[in-house]
TrEMBL record:
The gene is LOC106777997. This is cellulase. Its EC number is 3.2.1.4. Belongs to the glycosyl hydrolase 9 (cellulase E) family. The lineage of its organism: Eukaryota, Viridiplantae, Streptophyta, Embryophyta, Tracheophyta. The keyword Hydrolase applies. Residues 19-279 form the Glycoside hydrolase family domain. InterPro entries: 6-hairpin_glycosidase_sf, 6hp_glycosidase-like_sf, Glyco_hydro_9. Keywords: Carbohydrate metabolism, Cellulose degradation, Glycosidase, Hydrolase, Polysaccharide degradation. SUPFAM superfamilies: Six-hairpin glycosidases. Pfam families: Glyco_hydro_9. One of its GO terms (biological process) is cellulose catabolic process. It catalyses: Endohydrolysis of (1->4)-beta-D-glucosidic linkages in cellulose, lichenin and cereal beta-D-glucans.
Length: 283
């Protein structure tokens, strides 16, 4: 899923390669990963409704979102990062996406609508839906799955700064992507991003410990969470231009124990450097 998201940033075609087709298929991929009640506009007709009771174990509606890779678990850490990358693609290249811009925005909204559900309750962030060990022992279509749909969540007592900060980044980036076409929705996303970032920063800790075996070894945070906090702050600075977020990035980027040339769902420093380079160089 993550690699497909990054493909969307390719916008200028070589004469021998049909990048327009690649862009369309990259975005179409996400429709095949959709969970929940599918809309009439669904283009992949072989995918049907699935996981319509997600979140019922914690009395929170967690229907929707994206399945991860080839399994039926909804891992929110990489899902949020993928949503951030989709949004970044639209922010940078939306004006040259042509007819695919609407499909890209639909893909982002499918993620952000779900992330809004995951962060609807103050001081609680739903971190994951689906018991990964049981799921990986029983490969089946999501329409047919009968493995536990356990919900895992973060609180003040059991925080997860990396995951919460990544959700904040996704919502902030998406607020920029929707600013020109849906200002009301953009404002909702930005307000939630601010609240979730504050939660991530105020109650620091790794979701490795809070979610435990449900997160590891599948999507452990192998670095500390400071790069994720700086990443979230960088996107909030880009969305708000408030100097406090810029100061946070400058003050905390050195605390991120991450290879500066590595970029992905777990390591964010290279992406931060690119993101904020238009404002200033990080020392």
């Amino acid at each position: 899923m993550i690699m497909v998201a990054m493909m969307i940033t390719i916008t200028r075609a070589h004469s021998s390669i049909n990048y327009k087709e690649a862009l369309g298929k990259s975005i179409l991929f996400f429709e095949g990963q959709r969970s929940g009640k599918l809309p009439p506009s669904q283009r992949m007709k072989w995918r049907k409704d699935s996981a319509l009771s997600d979140g019922s174990d914690i009395r929170i509606n967690m229907v929707g979102g994206y399945y991860d890779a080839g399994d039926n678990v909804k891992f929110h850490f990489p899902m949020a990062f993928t949503t951030t990358m989709l949004a970044w693609s639209v922010v940078e290249f939306g004006d040259v996406m042509g007819s695919e811009l609407k499909n890209a925005l639909d893909a982002i909204r499918w993620g952000t609508d779900y992330l809004l559900k995951a962060t609807n309750n103050p001081n609680l962030v739903v971190a994951q839906v689906g018991q990964p060990n049981a799921d990986h022992n029983c490969w089946e279509r999501p329409e047919d799955m009968d493995t536990p749909r356990t919900s895992y969540y973060l609180t003040k007592e059991k925080p997860g700064s990396e995951l919460s900060a990544e959700i904040a980044a996704a919502l902030a980036a998406s607020s920029i992507a929707f600013r020109a076409t849906d200002a009301s929705y953009s404002n909702i996303l930005l307000k939630r991003a601010i609240r979730v970032f504050d939660f991530a920063n105020k109650y620091r800790g790794s979701y490795n410990n809070s979610v435990g075996e449900a997160a590891c070894p599948f999507y452990c945070d192998y670095n500390n969470y400071m790069d994720d906090l700086a990443w979230g702050a960088a996107w909030l600075y880009k969305a708000t231009k408030k100097p406090g977020y810029w100061d946070f990035v400058k003050s905390n980027i050195q605390a991120a124990n991450v290879d500066p040339f590595e970029f992905g769902w777990d390591a964010k420093v290279a992406g931060i450097n690119v993101l904020v380079s238009e404002a200033s160089c990080l020392s």
